[in-house]
Amino acid sequence: QLQASGGGLVQAGGSLRLSCAGSGRTFSSYVVGWFRQAPGKEREWIGWSWSGGTTAYADSAGGRFTISRDNAMKTVYLRMNSLNPEDTAVYYCAANCRPTTGNCAYWGVGTQVTVSS
């Protein structure tokens, strides 16, 4: 099971850190992805986190988003800085992903992020 948390209402220019809590013995070996979906828009990939800590980001992350993970805690984080209203979306994490295809086996319940201007 996956659970994204940490969303909320933040003013433009602010920061948030989202958490993705996993479970099971194999979670730490999974590639984990962060995605978001804004109202009326398609789901958008934000970045990947590999087990060893390597990360990759979409261009739209713009250097403002950072993914990290704590395998002992089975948690992957998404740090978001300099938020703007266009970042308003439901944010999801997914695990056991194949970055070459963009497909993930497990999806968590999203967390709402709302950025006010």
> Over the alpha carbons, how many angstroms does the gyration radius reach?
13 Å
Measured by DSSP, the beta-strand proportion falls in over 45%
Low-pLDDT segments, ≥5 res:
none
Cα end-to-end separation: 34 Å
Shape by Cα distribution: globular
Helix amount:
under 10%
Q: Which structural category fits the helices and strands?
A: mainly beta
Question: Got a strand count?
Answer: 11
Provide keyphrases for this structure.
117 residues
Explain the layout of strands and helices.
Elements: E1 3-5, E2 8-11, E3 16-21, E4 32-37, E5 44-49, E6 55-57, E7 65-70, E8 75-80, E9 89-98, E10 103-107, E11 111-116
Parallel strand pairs: 2-11
Antiparallel strand pairs: 1-3, 3-8, 4-5, 4-9, 5-6, 7-8, 9-10, 9-11
How would you describe this structure to a colleague?
The chain has 117 residues and is mainly beta. It has no helices and eleven strands. The protein has strands at residues 3-5, 8-11, 16-21, 32-37, 44-49, 55-57, 65-70, 75-80, 89-98, 103-107, 111-116. Strands 2, 4, 5, 6, 9, 10 and 11 form a seven-stranded mixed β-sheet that branches. A four-stranded antiparallel β-sheet has the order 1-3-8-7, with no helix packed on it. The radius of gyration is 13 Å and the shape is globular. The mean pLDDT is 95.
